[in-house]
Structure formats: C-alpha cells, structure tokens
What we know:
By secondary structure, the chain is mainly β. It has no helices and eleven strands. It has strands at 3-7, 10-12, 18-25, 33-39, 46-51, 57-59, 67-72, 77-82, 91-98, 104-106, 110-114. Strands 2, 4, 5, 6, 9, 10 and 11 form a seven-stranded mixed sheet that branches. Strands 1-3-8-7 form a four-stranded antiparallel sheet, with no helix packed on it.
Amino acid sequence: QVQLVESGGGLVQPGGSLRLSCAASGIIFSIATMGWYRQAPGKQRELVAGINAGRATNYSDSVKGRFTISRDNAKKMVYLQMNSLKPEDTAVYYCFSVDPFKNDYWGQGTQVTVSS
C-alpha cells in the first residue's frame, strides 16, 4: 500500500520560511519522480516543484528562486524548502509520486497559510 504523508505546514508571516516534508512508503522510492502540487481556494491545483530519480528539478515560475525541492532516497523523504513566502503562496500543498509505469500517488495535503 502506497502512502505519502506530508508534514511541516502551518501559519507563517510574509517573508518567512517553512520546510515541508513528505514521507513515502510502499513505492520504490529511488526510481520515482517526486514533487509538490498546491491548491488555493477557488483555484486549480498547480505544480510547484518536481524532482526525478536523477535529481533533476523543475519549478513553477511563481516559486523559482524562493523554493527548493530535495530528496533523501535512504530515508524515502522529499522536502520543499520555502523561503520569502508571500500571501499568494497560501494553499494546501500535496506531495505526489509518479513511478516509471506512470502510476501516480498523492498525499492528503498540508495547509500553508502566509498571513500577518
């Protein structure tokens, strides 16, 4: 059974930082593409960042230079370091995984609220 469990969300002031973590189980983590999507109220879910098995990364234009995705294959963890947070970053953040057979898996999401 595949499980992706996010943690690290919360309330932060504009300009602050948060680090999201995602613990994976039930997948061959080292060959999976991992990443984060987010969904704000009334908006479509959007890709925030992804990292493939070769550690190549991609980011949405809205977070480039502020967010950094990383992975630890030994711990089966993926992280999203978020700096210089803005109110428009407020959303539920979802961890996802895609295996080489194009099966995708999702976590339950963690709320990030950026507000003064």
